[in-house]
Amino acid sequence: xxxxxxxxxxxxxxxxxxxxxxxxxxxxxxxxxxxxxxxxxxxxxxxxxxxxxxxxxxxxxxxxxxxxxxxxxxxxxxxxxxxxxxxxxxxxxxxxxxxxxxxxxxxxxxxxxxxxxxxxxxxxxxxxxxxxxxxxxxxxxxxxxxxxxxxxxxxxxxxxxxxxxxxxxxxxxxxxxxxxxxxxxxxxxxxxxxxxxxxxxxxxxxxxxxxxxxxxxxxxxxxxxxxxxxxxxxxxxxxxxxxxxxxxxxxxxxxxxxxxxxxxxxxxxxxxxxxxxxxxxxxxxxxxxxxxxxxxxxxxxxxxx
Length: 305
Hints:
The chain is an alpha+beta fold. The chain has 14 helices and 12 strands.
């Protein structure tokens, strides 16, 4: 069943949230990401990503035939939640545990087909509080409340269904933040702290010290004639915010000097950085043609897998 989930997720062009989805978010969530499938699929970038994935052939077509699930038609929204602080995970150099995350998708699902296919992967159909659940031997659950799919470990999915059935209201502060960021971006994320997977050689210490000053980050992508990337970081002090903008300009300069013609480097040419008290804001953009050049090799590799 893991392979089934991976194929479905790989076909999704996005990662915009309704109240039912929010009600399933665990209290104290440290990182949340999501997106509006309709908005992304209607954009030139979304159409390009779909064309590169070639969903009409190979494993994707076979999987869509077997499951009756077509991500282009059947997905409305997606929400990924974690109770792990990404900055802490980066500092401790550990990977998030399986029980740290929850995936919620709003859409249309053919449960009978999914059940039949999951059975070949060792999963069985059960129920929890009258919600249909595909139960896998490694303690992974996929539940199907009407109009939704909820995936994670048994404990996390049970807790999400408990919150859903009880009619519990989502955390007001978290819901307000999600409403704000999802209204501004087509694909978005918000998290406590910040983690950077790779930094230029020789700059690690300076960048690491600066990142420690970040208390929370919000970011997203807006698709249109240009693809616009935005990040906002709340830091410990105005001085930390200024230091962060200086570091990003430094990193951008290094990247431009090292590989001036590499796909995506044009992004750094458009960097706009500013501060407002403790908040540092960054915006970069790419024309559609440059966006296609940047993502094309990666999309093809993902489609082949």
